[in-house]
TrEMBL record:
InterPro entries in the cross-refs: Ribose_5_isomerase_C (IPR022133), RpiB_LacA_LacB (IPR003500), RpiB_LacA_LacB_sf (IPR036569)
Spans traversing the lipid bilayer: none
GO molecular function annotations of the record: ribose-5-phosphate isomerase activity
Keywords, ordered alphabetically: Isomerase
Record protein name field: Ribose 5-phosphate isomerase B
Protein's organism: Luteimonas terrae
Gene3D superfamilies: Sugar-phosphate isomerase, RpiB/LacA/LacB
Family classification: Belongs to the LacAB/RpiB family.
E.C. number(s) listed in UniProt: 5.3.1.6
Domain annotation Ribose-5-phosphate isomerase C-terminal: ranges: 165-209
Domain of life where this protein originates: Bacteria
């Protein structure tokens, strides 16, 4: 699985610690990690709103399979990611959330609070979250005998979101283009996106925004 980690300005200084936990878990389970958000306080500036834009670009173009995002509360990143078609983001405070999200909801993004509740032992909690988020087969239900009902409802929600959403690129064109420009301005995002994106229309749109 290809996993993008993205952090915004408010908690950017914690990126090395979070990335280390994600890299450790991903290496153990054979996943690839792209660190596409801020890697420190002085990096290309992103807010949780930009994270929604780059998360949706990476997921809808199939450049990555999963996004790990967050902000201070985690709630802004959650709302910003879920604003977009093709993104199914869960809120994750502790490892049980990650496990239940994977098995019951089977979405493709997590929003984690990196300020609230981030105290002593936080890096251990983060590692355990990643262990549960990226372990074994997803969508198996909890308890397992509820799998059919839970996966049926996850599929219905996906259909509802498809119906309620505009065409993805049209949606991107309908918002302030300076927001998109700032969102896609980071070098590590651009490398992960252009090396892996599989959707010509989305790639052409991002190239246009960047003047390439
Ligand atoms: O958690 C958040 C949104 O849900 C933001 O990270 C938080 O609001 C940033 O705070 P500030 O603008 O005061 O640095």
């Amino acid at each position: 699985m290809k996993i993008a980690l993205m952090q915004e300005f408010s908690q950017a200084a914690k990126n090395p610690v979070v990335l280390e936990q994600l890299n450790t878990v991903a290496a153990d389970k054979g996943h690839t990690v792209f660190n596409v958000g801020m890697d420190g306080d002085n990096d290309h500036r992103l807010t949780y709103i930009h994270l929604g834009i780059i998360g949706s670009l990476l997921l809808n173009s199939k450049a990555v399979d999963f996004v790990v995002a967050g902000c201070g509360t985690g709630q802004g990143a959650l709302m910003s990611l879920n604003a977009w078609p093709g993104v199914y983001c869960g809120y994750c405070i502790e490892p049980t959330d990650a496990f239940l999200f994977a098995q019951v909801n089977n979405g493709n993004a997590l929003a984690i609070p990196f300020a609230k509740g981030y105290g002593w032992g936080a890096e251990i909690n983060i590692r355990y979250i990643f262990e549960k988020a990226f372990d074994g087969e997803r969508g198996q239900g909890y308890p397992v005998e509820r799998k059919e009902s839970q996966m049926t409802n996850a599929g219905i929600l996906a259909d509802v979101k498809k119906g309620a959403s505009k065409d993805f690129v049209e949606g991107l064109k309908a918002i302030d283009q300076d927001l998109v420009k700032q969102a896609v301005g980071g070098e590590r995002f651009q490398k992960a996106f252009f090396d892996n994106a599989q959707d010509d229309a989305i790639v052409a749109y991002v190239k246009g925004v960047l003047g390439k």
